[in-house]
Write a structure and sequence with these properties.
Elements: H1 3-14, E1 19-26, E2 32-42, E3 45-55, H2 57-79, E4 83-87, E5 93-96, H3 98-104, H4 108-111, H5 116-119, H6 126-130, E6 140-147, E7 153-165, E8 168-177, H7 179-228, H8 234-264, E9 273-276, H9 277-294, E10 298-303, E11 310-313, H10 315-331, E12 338-349, E13 352-361, H11 368-371, H12 383-389, H13 395-405, E14 411-415, E15 419-429, E16 444-449, H14 455-467, E17 470-475, H15 479-484, E18 491-495, H16 501-510, E19 516-521, E20 536-540, H17 545-556, E21 575-579, H18 583-595, E22 599-603, H19 606-615, E23 620-624, H20 632-645, E24 653-657, H21 662-670, E25 675-678, H22 683-693, H23 707-715, H24 720-746, H25 751-766, H26 770-784, H27 788-810
Parallel strand pairs: 10-12, 16-17, 16-18, 18-19, 19-20, 21-22, 21-23, 23-24, 24-25
Antiparallel strand pairs: 1-2, 2-3, 4-5, 4-8, 6-7, 7-8, 9-11, 12-13, 13-15, 14-15
Helix pairs in contact: 7-8, 8-9, 9-10, 10-13, 19-20, 24-25, 24-27, 25-26, 26-27
Bound molecules: adenosine-5'-diphosphate.
Adenosine-5'-diphosphate (ADP) binds at residues 324, 328-329, 332, 361, 363-366, 374, 379-382, 385-386, 391-397, 420.
Length: 811
């Protein structure tokens, strides 16, 4: 203990005073405590002192903490930037910190007991300021207008809280001057506006520029279109196409400049329109063939034929991406390399076609390290390489962004020195069934072949198969023999680079009347000369499916502009049995099969079918699954068992069913049937199926003869001019006789028309006009029955038929 303190206190107490003091004591266990002592004389005896001590250690600690807190509060309230003041329940100021003094300009004594509104805060904010329900509610912050002593107004953020002081609810205001912040914000806004208008000026400049360039370009493109309509030879047409493509590509570059600025400002939108993906990709690749040819680079295009021709997507963006990839591929590939554009079907779901579009080259490639960041703007793999090849470094960035907009991603795989593949996947929706499959069903196409392996030739083969054509390879060594032998071809395809000119010339000489020879040439090489022109259709490589289709279309379209239905010329022969219980279906299938040249027997149930098979020999049997008496499966099993028993060759049995679920497809195999045909019957499917099981007889290319030539052939007369004369004669005689017979009928004379008709019918039969023969024989019946009305109707039919003959044969 502090001896001095204690002895002082003892002395004082002895002199009769009550003494108080605080001193620290140390207890026996060494713990120190602060004790408040009260010392007094006990019972008035000087030698007895009463010491009463209260341990105040804890009390002292709390006090100390409070003191620190208070000074901190004081420091804060006076040093914080915010003005802090308290008002009582009369909204009069009762407390004021230093910042308040600085912000508002009043000293505490000047503002004490003044009303907060309107002295410090503008009156119009009063309601807002004090509307917050119970005073204990905290944190009401809002922007208010405040007033300084000098009358200056400024915007501030005021946070109100309510505090309980000596049993009363007072309000504490924390006010922050935000006028500088607001000004800064305004400045920023202004700056942004300025920047925006500068950006706008830039976009406007770009738009104006491209408009200026586009105007003359549109003139070029427009007049090219007009030029196309004038008469030109095939070379000129090709050149024109290239000019056209270049103009288009220039136009798209200008659009690209716009695109980039649009992409930058996030304004680019993706279109969804229906377009022909074959034509699109073909025209893009055509655009680059000339450039590739300059470097002797082979340009290949392969489109998976399972992709429908019309898809929904953004053709322009795809064109831009692919153009850019092709242009890079050609740019970065050495002379003699190969560039391939491919569209492959990856997946089909919910009638959406996931398609991978890729461009592969055999060029310089890109090192792994340089592949990083290659899709960023202005990035070029190698500046020395770029200097050699030129470029802006924008193309891949734009392409990659376009791909992203289409929910796709441009990707790259490359090996330095070996080449690169860039690809992206796009999902196309499809509106309608638009595949080219079997467009030229039944067309017989010969391909002239030399020994050398040839990509284009394989490509043609693939496409022709897809189009449903019958393909015949003609080795050039045997070409003259084969073509001279009278074997039938509708079209022959040749690549003039692979076949000597002399040979081509000889081939054109031996080609049969209506057959045409399509000769593909390189875009930069001329057509071989001296060929028999009327048999040759010149075409320029590359070979595309739509190009083939267009060429075939031209060849297969008659002079009358009518397309010839090739399936009409498909003729089979053989005896078929159809087991089908529905009479409508019976008729339908019978008509189709008869048209195709078959003899047809119809039965209505399995038992009858079995009986027929035992009695007759058939080439093929169509068997319905569900039939009364005996179903198709049982009948098939019985027929097969019988064939085995008799050791007879098996007659193919084709299941007929409307049920196309997978199950029934496998059912027919289990039942021992050989094929499957879904109802309703699709002609093309039927023909494909028949071709599989029945050998077609050799056919004449009759659809390629003019009607008069056809008639001449039928009548075994060579002089077509004479036949034409005959037809003209016939038409005019019949027209005359119709009038005469009508007058006869009107006067009730049935005998004269009857004899006229018999004469006419004889001539009609000579001219193979079976239709007229049947009209006239009906007419004769009506005359015999003396039914004027019906007889007149037949005459009307006759007049119509004569009109038809006139248009078909004599135009
Ligand atoms: P640029 O206008 O320079 O071609 P791109 O963005 O289209 O701009 O390409 C960026 C860079 O990527 C090119 O400079 C080149 O170095 C590299 N590159 C692109 N495509 C190929 C490719 N097929 N083969 C090799 N390098 C390529």
């Amino acid at each position: 203990i502090d001896i001095q303190k204690y002895s002082d206190a003892a002395l004082k107490a002895n002199s009769g005073e009550v003494t108080n003091f605080t001193a620290e004591i140390t207890a026996k266990d060494g713990i120190k405590s602060l004790v408040n002592w009260n010392v007094s004389v006990m019972n008035n005896r000087i030698d007895r002192l009463l010491w009463m001590g209260i341990d105040i250690t804890e009390q002292q600690e709390v006090k100390e903490k409070l003191r620190v807190n208070e000074s901190m509060m004081e420091f804060l309230t006076n040093n914080i930037q915010d003005a802090i003041f308290i008002s009582d329940d009369n909204r009069q100021v009762i407390s004021w910190n230093t910042s308040a003094e600085l912000m508002f300009g009043y000293k505490l004594e000047e503002i004490l007991l003044e009303s907060v509104v309107p002295k410090l805060i503008s009156k119009e904010y009063e309601n807002q300021l004090f509307k917050s329900g119970h005073p204990s509610k905290q944190g009401n912050t809002l922007e208010v207008e405040c007033i300084r002593k000098n009358g200056e107004l400024f915007m501030a953020e005021a946070a109100l809280s309510h505090i309980l002081q000596e049993g009363r609810w007072n309000t504490m205001f924390a006010v922050r001057d935000i006028s500088t912040r607001i000004k800064r914000e305004q400045d920023l806004k202004n700056a942004l506006e300025t920047a925006k208008s500068a950006e706008k000026a830039k976009s406007e400049f770009l738009a104006n520029m491209s408009h200026e360039i586009r105007t003359p370009l549109n003139g070029i493109i427009g007049f090219l279109d007009l030029l196309k309509q004038t008469e030109m030879d095939s070379t000129q047409i090709e050149y024109l196409k290239i000019i056209n493509s270049s103009a288009d590509s220039l136009l798209s570059i200008i659009n690209e400049i716009l695109d980039y600025s649009k992409l930058e400002s996030g304004k680019m939108q993706i279109e969804s329109v229906e377009f022909n993906i074959y034509e699109e990709l073909e025209s893009i690749s055509e655009l680059y063939t000339a450039r590739a040819a300059e470097k002797d680079i082979a340009m290949h295009l392969y489109i998976d034929t399972e992709i429908p021709s019309y898809v929904i997507g953004d053709p322009l963006r795809i064109r831009q991406i692919v153009s850019n990839l092709l242009s890079n591929a050609i740019k970065f590939t050495h002379n003699g390399g190969v560039v391939t554009l491919e569209a492959k079907l990856k997946d089909v779901s919910d009638s959406e076609y996931l398609t991978t579009i890729s461009v592969t080259d055999t060029g310089i490639g890109i090192s792994e390290e340089k592949q990083q960041g290659i899709f960023e703007a202005f990035s070029q793999a190698d500046s020395s390489v770029t200097r050699k090849y030129g470029g802006t470094g924008l193309g891949l960035a734009i392409s990659s962004r376009f791909a992203q907009l289409m929910d796709s991603q441009l990707q790259l795989s490359s090996k330095e020195g070996e080449g690169s593949t860039f690809w992206f996947d796009v999902r196309f929706a499809v509106l309608r069934d638009s595949s080219y499959k079997n467009t030229f069903m039944g067309l017989i196409v010969g391909i002239l072949k030399n020994d050398e392996f040839n990509y284009d030739e394989n490509l043609i083969k693939r496409y022709l198969k897809y189009l449903g054509c019958e393909l015949k390879i003609i080795p050039i060594a045997e070409a003259i023999n084969i073509l001279g032998s009278g074997e039938v071809f509708h079209i022959i395809v040749a690549d003039c680079k692979k076949i000597p000119e002399k040979m081509l010339k000889e081939i054109t000489e031996v080609i049969l009347g209506s057959c045409r020879l399509i000769i593909f040439r390189e875009p930069d090489l001329p057509m071989p000369s001296g060929l028999r022109e009327e048999t040759v259709i010149p075409a320029v490589k590359p070979i595309h499916i739509t190009k083939l289709i267009n060429l075939f279309d031209t060849i297969m379209t008659g002079k009358d502009g009518k397309k010839k239905d090739i399936t009409e010329d498909i003729k089979f022969s053989g005896r078929l049995l159809v087991a089908e219980d529905n009479p409508v279906n019976q008729q339908l299938i019978k008509i189709i099969l008869l048209k195709l040249g078959f003899t047809v027997d119809i039965v209505s149930d399995g038992q009858e079918a079995y009986n027929k098979v035992i009695a007759e020999k058939y080439d093929l049997i169509f068997m319905d699954f569900h039939m009364p008496v005996m179903d198709g499966v049982t009948a098939t099993k019985k027929i097969i068992a019988w064939e085995k028993e008799q050791a007879l060759p098996h007659t193919p049995i084709i299941a007929l069913t409307a049920n196309v679920v997978e199950e029934s497809r496998s059912n027919y195999k289990e039942a021992g049937m050989d094929g499957f045909l879904a109802k309703p019957i699709v002609l093309v499917d039927l023909i494909i199926l028949l071709r599989e099981f029945i050998k077609e007889p050799p056919k004449l290319p009759s659809q390629l003869l003019s009607p008069i030539e056809e008639l001449a052939a039928k009548m075994n007369v060579e002089d077509t001019a004479f036949i034409k004369l005959l037809v003209e004669e016939f038409v005019s005689v019949v027209s005359e006789k119709i009038l005469e017979m009508q007058t006869n009928l009107l006067s009730g004379d049935f005998a004269a028309p009857l004899s006229h008709s018999e004469v006419l019918r004889g001539v009609a039969l000579n001219l193979h006009y079976e239709e007229i023969d049947s009209i006239l024989s009906q007419f004769e019946n009506h005359c015999r029955n003396k039914d004027r009305r019906l007889a007149e109707m037949q005459l009307e039919l006759l007049a119509k038929e004569i009109y038809n003959i006139r248009t078909v044969y004599l135009n």
